[in-house]
Amino acid sequence: MKTNLYIFEGITTSGKTSIVASLEGLIRRAGDSVKIVSEDETFLPVFTEKEVDNLGRHAYRVLEKLISISQRGVNSILVERFLLSYSYKSRTSIGNFQQLELLLLQHFNPMYVLLKLEEGKIWQSIQGAFEHRGGDWSGKAPGINSWEEYILSKGSIGEIVEYYSEQQNNFMHNGGKSLIPLCIIDANSKDYKMLAQDIALEYQICKIGE
Questions:
Q1: Is 191 exposed, middle or buried (0-12, 13-18, 19+ CB in 10 A)?
Q2: How many CA atoms lie within 13 A of 31 on its CB side?
Q3: What angle, rounded to 10 degrees, do the helices at 192-202 and 16-29 form?
Q4: pLDDT at residue 137 in the model
Q5: How many CB atoms lie within 10 A of CB 133?
Q6: 108-147: per-residue pLDDT in tens?
Q7: Residues 180, 132: Cα–Cα separation, whole Å
Q8: pTM of the predicted model, to two decimals?
Q9: What is the predicted pLDDT for the residue at 133?
Q10: Where are the alpha helices (DSSP H) in 91-133?
Q11: Of 20, 21, 83, 176, which has fewest CB within 10 angstroms of its CB?
Q12: Handedness of CA 193, 172, 81, 108 (dihedral sign)
């Protein structure tokens, strides 16, 4: 039986990490095995990379890790950011990663889960995260020392919202052309525990309350 592979995509502050953590707990409580592969492994190592060939090489390394996890008998793997993010970074079509998608389909039961925010709520979501997102960002982006500094480096509030709105539209566009099924989740409520339950029930990831 193939391992279920759920790839969570979405703009910053859309809730990827929180929903993945909640979903992991639900799956474990249902008695199934699960492994998280965070953006620390999938995305941050290529944070400043824009060349599609270099992104592709890293993607194959991630694929090898995913296959290794599945061979240990894990029921579900929850991944933060992968090929849709790579397509956006390289400003190319998801078609450039078609071979990787075919391999994902060969080895897993994969699905993209895109967490979507209304354009009018993007800045509110980002502003709310300024209070609790810290950590040392040196080395992730040239001359940038914090997440807040990285966000504000994109310009005015309007320019920041435009950037992330365009990124979200790109995810939806490429997701629609992908070989892998795409589900779009309205994440505006910010109730991540409830959203995780809804995702688990809707896509039969695990049983709830049993």
A1: middle
A2: 3
A3: 60
A4: 66
A5: 15
A6: 999 999 999 999 999 999 998 987 776 666 666 677 788 8
A7: 34
A8: 0.93
A9: 77
A10: 98-107, 122-129
A11: 176
A12: positive
